[in-house]
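Cont'd.
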Amino acid sequence: MSARRRFRPRRALSSLLSYLVLLLILLFAVFPFLWTLAISLTNKAAPGVSIYDFPASLFPRSLTLYNFFNVFRTFHLARYFLNSVVITGLTIAGTLLVSALAAYPLARMRFPLKNFLFAAIISTLVLPSEINFIVNTLTLKRVHLLGTYWGVVLPLISTAFGIFLMRQAYLGVPAALTEAAIIDGATDWQILWRIMVPLSSPSLTALGIFTLVNTWNSYFWPMVALLPAPRLAPLAVGMLKLKGQFVYDPFNIAAGAVIMMVPVLIVFVAAQRLFMRGLEGAVK
Amino acid sequence: MKLAAPRVRVARAGAIPRSWIVAYSLLFPALLLLVVFTFYPVIYGSYLGFTHYTAIDFAHGRSPRWNDLHNFSRVFSDSLFQTGLINSLKYLAVVPALQVASLAVAVLVNRKLPGMTFFRASFYVPVITSISLAAVMWSWIYQRSGSLNWALRLLHLLAGGQGFNWLTNTGTALWAIMLVTFWRGFGYYMVLYLAGLQSIPKEIDEAAQLDGASSWQIFWRVTVPLMKPTTLLCTLLSTLAAIRVLEEILVLTGGGPLHSTYTALMYVYHKAFQGFSFNFGEASAAGLIVAVVGVILSVLNFRLMRESSGVKG
């Protein structure tokens, strides 16, 4: 007891120090968002307002939601937003379907070359991918899919991460359940849809959420695949077009940035634990 | 249960078992997409690196013409590629900074103190931020009248009234972009290190404490050695990301000013999609060089890790 009491002041001090450091890191991590939010809410019609005036632009004196409406009107934000929704939606649906199907034989069936195929799928994690975008662009052009939603989506949906995640989920389904189903005369197809998929819904959700965040945010590949069709560009690509526009309006851009960030933040807050498990990195 | 076993799809002799057909049809969509969009690009792209092939050839339906190592010598002697490769190698400086910081932050938020869930989640928000949003926000921070110069003046590191745009200054642009990579990365690696930290049995820490080890000693003698596998994974991931840096550059500076942020993959991208050439052959050759550098760095990474653990063990 006495030993413990002796340590207390030191402990309190170290906790205090920890919090101090944590607050500094917090400032580093979230400051860009806070400033952007402040700019997006700034009434630019007020006299003397400029984002080129630093500490002042962090605390706007007159607030407005005008920028949020204006960015829709002047920059076709709705179109970019819709493109993002379509591309993300197709990618999620495709990833879930393809992974859920492919994982079943890998987890539960016996067939020739099974281990080889599984190893090949996992090997894509370490394959050099520096030049893939060049060849994929050529391939898509050949089949007339370059500059379409599907051209962006198709190369993204079959991933080692998705297949591995679903395989692990299926391996966790008790064998007794599927054996019972086999005795009742169920086919593999029925076992997959009636037992495996429903029982793996947590993994499907996880995969869906990771795919959502990754696709919503992805910039390079959609930019390349949609070079011939700028009208189909998602928000991540559109945002930078706004930034490079002739009539540079930081208030509108800030509003656009907030609009792009909000869906991801909502998903993140709702599914925080998933991201904090480090699941993604373990397989990525 | 056992009785049912023979019922499981006994194949007729000679016929392909039905279950094989089922298995392959379920795998088909995934395999087809992987072959077309992942394996084929690696193989065909590597082949292109040894050929003469441009957008004009592609448009006219001409096939690539073999030209030995010609692309490689062209690329290597191109001063722009040299600049790019050097900048990509410079970019590796972000790796140790990122790893040390992430591990330290992970240890910090692993303490049993109230509010840690909040801190962990907040540190992860930059990770789920698109690079294009990061570009928008950080170019404000870095501008002449931005918050970074303001903070530096506040700390008296810059004289009053002084300041410059960090992204248009040849001396600072690359480092400024690295800071953005750092910002978007430390939460990610923090989570990986946290998973590693939480897999260390508490008994080990407690035993060390009983033996009178200080928390500093526990960190260096217990935590760090036990975290070796996680550290290896994280340094590997961030090394490969650093040598392949492209997106950050594209959105923040486009390679400028005066090529001071021009990286090796930027060269690949430009060769393939910009200018008059659209030279897929040379672009692929340059990409292959980056890939080989990546492999070499990975091997070095493994070597270094093994050696350092050998010394400790």
